[in-house]
Amino acid sequence: MVALMKARVLKVLNPDSKVTWNERNGSGWTVTDQDGKSNPVKTENSLLKDLLTTKQCRPDTRAGGSDTGALAMSPMPERVVGDDGKPNVGLFAIGVPTEGARWVTTAVPRPLADSVLLRSADAVARAALRQAQKDLLDKKLG
Predict the structure, then answer these.
(1) Are 55 and 48 spatial neighbours (Cβ–Cβ below 8 Å)?
(2) Number of domains the chain is built from
(3) 75 within a domain of the structure (yes/no)
(4) How far from 105 is each of 15, 36, 54, 118, 120, CA to CA, in Å?
(5) Are 106 and 99 in contact (CB under 8 A)?
(6) Which residue ranges are recorded for the region named Disordered (predicted)?
(7) Closest C-alpha among 134, 41, 25 to residue 90
């Protein structure tokens, strides 16, 4: 399935997506996310709205500019990418806000399955602790 997705033969859709025929977009098909609860552009969440307004985050887009409905983030540890394209050192995102760029982020990890969610959580925790230690040392030495 991953090979088909990489080859752009298969595209996995959100269960709430709406697929419609559209002659104008070249392929003829338009896919619309109907949920939008974690989409930084469509959300009613005040934190995400504030992060977007203050340019501390931006929506994730695929090649060609289509919106994934997720927050833009760096590879592990998933630091939120600001409007300037740079990862925010102290801001991380895992789980639902990354859905669309990552798949099945809220699935319950199974033992011995090398869960991406658990690896993400571990990487975020390590990076956050390293940053806190650095900030504490800078404060003591500064």
Answers:
(1) no
(2) 1
(3) yes
(4) 14, 16, 26, 10, 10
(5) yes
(6) 51-84
(7) 134
Cα 18 from chain centre: 21
Structural domain range at position 125: 35-141
Pair 87, 74: CB distance under 8 Å: yes
Residue 85 lies in a domain: yes
Rounded Cα distance, 50 and 98, in Å: 17
Query: In the predicted model, is pLDDT for residue 52 greater than 50?
Result: yes
Take residue 76 and report the two structure tokens written for it. Answer: 């592990």
- Say which amino acid occupies 116: V
Give the type of residue at 44: E
